[in-house]
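Supplementary Note 3. Input sequence used for the single-chain structure prediction.
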Amino acid sequence: MRTKIAIILFLSVLASLQVEAQEIFNLQRCIDYALENNSNLKKSKLELEKSFESRREIMGSLLPQISGSGSLNYNLKKAQFVMPNFVNDMLPPNMQDPNASKYMTIEMGTNYSAGVGATLNQQILNFTLFSTLEIAKTAESMATLGIESKEEEVIAQTASIFYAVQSTAYAAEQFKQSIKLIDRMLVTMESNYQNGLVKKVDLDRLKVNRVNLSTQQSAIENAIDIQKNLLKLQMGMDINQPIEIEEIDLDVFEQKVEMPQLQGFELTQLIPFQLIQQQHKIGYLQVKSVKSELLPSLMLGVNYQYNLLGDKLFGSDDSYSYPTSVVGLNLRIPIFAGMSKNAKLKGAQIELMKLREDEQSVGQSLTMAYQNALLKLSDSRQTIDAQRQNMELAAEVFRITEENYQQGLASMSDVLNANSSLIQSQISYADALSKHMTAYIELRKANGTIKKLVK
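The predicted structure, written as discrete structure tokens, is reproduced below.
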């Protein structure tokens, strides 16, 4: 029995370890998860579906429109017609009623009337609908580009937060190493203090520094939790679901630093510029649509009706039935609309001119963003080199200062200052790594290669 329990416990632990292993997210997995679950991206996909249905709705207006009808009426009061009393005039003179009224009334119709029919209408010539269909197709293309734009944005934001988490976790790990150094010194100083080799004030100062480091470490760990929550929000993950991020690989960061600058900037290949071009096209089509409202339209109409008349609801000998059918063309020619069409056309032309200005402005902004990203990436490279050297130097200074203190050649203040400088250099290096990756992502986004970030 105990053996079975032990086996079950072992399998449970093994399963939990496997689950934990599955919870480690690298950058590719974070991006894939975000592309699948990001709320804004889902909304963009719904917009594409909506634009597709809008285009189908307009196309349906160009297809034959068929409708059926049916009616059943009971005439509570039949219609009566008043006419001259020609019946009295037609009688022989000796039979005519001199007191007869001048007019007589005749009841018309039957008690019941029914009918069924069908109507077909087909647009033959309607330039307004044709223009509207072109606008709908362009809007659908814009929705497709909108999804691509949102995907680029999701990738960039997810990667930025992911690298920020890694950099902050790296800084927290460096804090742990520094605290271990202080703990090692505390053990030595406690022993030396017991032997009367160091002053109590030096021991107390080291303890105070140890507490301060713990406080800073706790703040950094809280910052990591906050960044992870931001990452989960960006990915569309449940905030309460735990997530473990792959540890930083400095070699990967260093490889990014050494990569040649991502040259090659083609404005027309950028999604934001393509979007503004599509908006410009819609503006042109709207002007065309307003002009088309001044053109004639032609529609074919076909109607068939089968009628039934009688004094009884169900068939009788005195019931009558007959069909009717009509085929016709309906031509509409706009002549005068009180200058409203002219005003509408001017408004559409003004909107088109505004879109031209927007297109030029967007082009300049995208070019500037690319150039600025190049400058930031170059600057971040230099910063990383400087901070790496500074961190290595601070580590060497701390090592030498600690040895000198043990030999009585340096004071506790020198040790604490060296330790503080080491920690600051480690944090600065981690911050430089994060800023470099942010600049790298911005450049990828600026030249339209953000989707190749992890490929």
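The mean pLDDT is 85. The domain at 25-68+125-301+336-452 is CATH 1.20.1600.10 (Outer membrane efflux proteins (OEP)).
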